[in-house]
Amino acid sequence: MKRDLAHITTSPTTTLWLLVALLLAFAPHALRLPLTITALCLLFGLWRFNIERRPAAKLPHRIVRTMILCTTLVIVYLHYGTLLGREAGIALLATMLALKLLEMRTVRDYIVVILLGYFLAVTLVLYSQTLPIAAYMILVAFMLTATLIHLNLQQEKRSVQASLRTTGKLFIQAVPIMLILFFLFPRIPGPLWSLPDDADSGTTGISDEMSMGSISNLSQSNRIAFRVAFDEQIIDNSLSYWRGPVLWQTDGKNWRVAPAAPSRTLSYRPKGEPVHYTVTLEPHNRKWLYGLDIPATVPPQATINRDFQLITQSKVKELIRYEMSSYSEYETGPLTSDERQRALQLPASRNSRAVALGQQWQQQLQEPEKIISHALQYFNQQPFVYTLKPPLLGENPVDEFLFNTQQGFCEHYAASFTILMRAAGIPARIVTGYQGGDFNPIGNYLIVRQRDAHAWTEVWLAGQGWVRVDPTAAVAPERIEQGAETLFSERFNRQSTLQFESAFLTSSWLRLRYGWDSLNNSWNQWVIGYDTLTQSQLLSRFGVDSIKQMAIIMVIAIISALTILQLLAMRRSRKKQDLISSTYQHFCQKFSAIGIQRHPHEGPIDFSQRVIAARPDLAPQVLQISDLYIALKYRPRHTQQQIKELQQQVRRLKL
Amino acid sequence: MKYLPPLIEQLTSRLFNIERRSGNSRSESIILTGRRIYILPTYYGLLFAMLLMLLLVGSTNYNNSLGFILTFLLASIALVSIIHTYRNLLHLRVEVGKAGAVFCGSDATFQLQLTKTDKQMRYNICVRTKGTSPIVTTIDDNAIATVKLTRPATQRGWQPLEQITIDSVFPLGLFRAWSHCTLPISCLVYPQPAPPSPPPTSRGGGTGNSSTLNGADDFIGFRSYQPGDSPRHVNWKGAAHSDELLTKRFADHESSERWFEWDARPDLDTEARLSLLCRWIIDAEQHGNRYGLRMPDSTIPLGQGSEQQHRCLKALALFEPTAT
């Protein structure tokens, strides 16, 4: 079967195109791969480029190539300690592809390189699945396909233009079928086998540990954590606490979640009506979801634990979407003795001044409510500063923070407050998560970013259960009311309004940003978040319940799309051609009436010459008609006007 | 794997009897309609399918939506390319062109004309017959492409063009569309000229003379080379300067008339006799003689020029020995 393409030959232009396409596919990896490997790939590519420029140059000898191959394998192995897995696999693919360039000679080699190029293109999306990356990947696929088409053009008539035009046509015509496949192709829930450990690009966002300064690190990041669309009314900013890990254990410096508390059914008494909303969570590679404080329903992907945290079975490695509802007012039940013990746990050796202060408050005030409001007043009245860049703290961080530096971010306040409460005999724990978010008026949803990461405290009060207390609010109430963005970009805003450009610029910039995010949100919801679950949900809405039905509908849809495509293409040329041909036939019939028959294989030029020989008097008319006919029939562009003219000319012809 | 397409082809042709019908058609032009065009994946098409499978498994495994998008995009492009490949052949008109006359032992040539009946460009169309290297052509806005097929001429007489295959893998090389045509075109194959040998001594009615070929012939000019001309008479020096190969023409001193007779050498068998006659006719033409041919079943009167030569050689080519 290889003979099918036996007549195809390669040419330098094709090679150059291929090199450009591969360079495009490789470029995003270039920065990510180790320097040695990037350099190797570029070296091989340049080598091939040089060979192509000088016709006398030859491809390296087989022995040289084998040596290079072995060296490259060793280099990759030394770098990663393996040849498998994602990182090493991509390095291996890139180097082998670059090496293949040095032995690329036959059409078969070219096609293999192009196919490997497609593979390299798909590895681009293992790191990021944003809209720009998608566009870039399609560009790479376009270039590779154009090269493949260039290869399949007749050598003497190869033109870049023709291959680009055909590629464009193919891509445009492929879109409907691609959409059918994307939405209807039955998705099998992955992974099919356990992924290598490096399959994820790393964790982002809040972790299950906290130390002083860990959340303020996040506050520099504009990365989106999740987006929320509310069913009815958007929730007030001061109530939008997005619950994440709950931290109990501390050594005075670091805070950790307690050993997994057994999950149980929700046991609390809700007050008021629940809020309904849908969260689109970006992958963060952790085993939990975020929901408003506190969840009323549990999405199918998760279970809820005693800390009211939504726990997933496996790490969230791809974007997911879930519907939820929450109560903002509630009353939780009593505390178990184990819980009470853990909620009062204090490290013996650290932060003795803070512990002493808490114990002093307990003796003075007795009642928990009074202690809490006193503590909040303490934060409010002492010269505490809310800042993104708190000074580094030493071995007794709470003491140093409370009595020396007094500059901190939310985790400083939450941690110190919790220590003070525990010292004062009030069960307390830290809850981490996000607070606030920006509302996108264009897409009508809330964007929660990493900089909205937050930590607050929950204290247990008899009769009320766990109650949220946010000491940060005592220091910087605007952080809670307006969100981190307004607070920390205030300086920037003031500057820009001082300069003479109007608020219009700022607002159109904002609108642009919200528009772009809204686009990304739809992209996430419909493309990235489209998985097995969404597919079955969407299709069951149309009454499609089984995979078998889905497959049948998909096949029918594809066949109809192809048929429509074929019919459209045929009709376009056929309709006009029929008119032109029948007019010319009419012309021929006129002559056959006087005994000049057109032979079936006779071309219009030959026929017109024969006619003119027989009837020299008709020469100008006959010539005009046959010229017009040839132009209409075989030249690419013609107008309706010309067809009409041909009809008229033939009609007027009197023998 | 290699034998798969022919097998399927045979199967389909048996099933629908398409091949036979088209094979019997004696029309001088055939339009490749939908029923005549077969399409199957090539080796690279199968390779591509493997790539798609790998991409699909990878995307499923990493649950990567963009991976799915690329996989499905490539799959759709491959599907759409079927239509493009098919349409690259569809409604192509294949017409009989000229078929020259050649000597046995050289290559029979057949000209075919490919015409597109619509505006669609036809890229990289490949025409071949069994055992020949394919001829590749592109039909652009000129609408007509002429293809010259050559087959070794092994037997004198009419050599018909065997069934030809017109195929195309454009645009991606993943699918191959092909169609078979049998066209009523034949190339006349003259007998193979015998090695140069002295012409016959005149007999019968011939006003013969027996001057030898390598005698005192006069060079009288050039004419374009024809197959069968003696290499000794080819103007090799001139060939270095121009594309055209010229043969020197010589005239005998006593420019004369010759009759070549079937019975001149009764000792040889039919084919050898024909070869010898062929040689004599060529030489006579080359020397500017007037000559005629007497065969058992026909006689060609004296004459001169390429027309005369063709008439004589045709008679030789088509000669069928009777029981005598």
Model description:
The complex is a heterodimer of chains A (655) and B (324). With 655 residues, chain A is α+β, with helices and mostly antiparallel strands. Chain A has three domains: 2-184; 209-481, no CATH class; 561-652, no CATH class. The radius of gyration of chain A is 36 Å and the shape is elongated. With 324 residues, chain B is an alpha+beta fold. Chain B folds into two domains: 26-190, no CATH class; 218-317, no CATH class. Chain B is built from seven helices and 17 strands. Chain B has helices at 4-16, 18-24, 43-62, 65-89, 236-239, 270-286, 306-317; strands at 29-31, 38-41, 92-99, 101-103, 107-116, 122-129, 135-139, 144-152, 157-160, 164-168, 175-181, 186-190, 218-224, 246-251, 257-261, 290-294, 299-303. A five-stranded antiparallel β-sheet of chain B has the order 2-11-10-6-7. In chain B, β16 and β17 form a beta hairpin. Residues 14-25 and 203-216 of chain B have low confidence and may be disordered. Chains A and B meet through α5, α6, α7 and α20 of A and α3, α4, β6 and β7 of B.
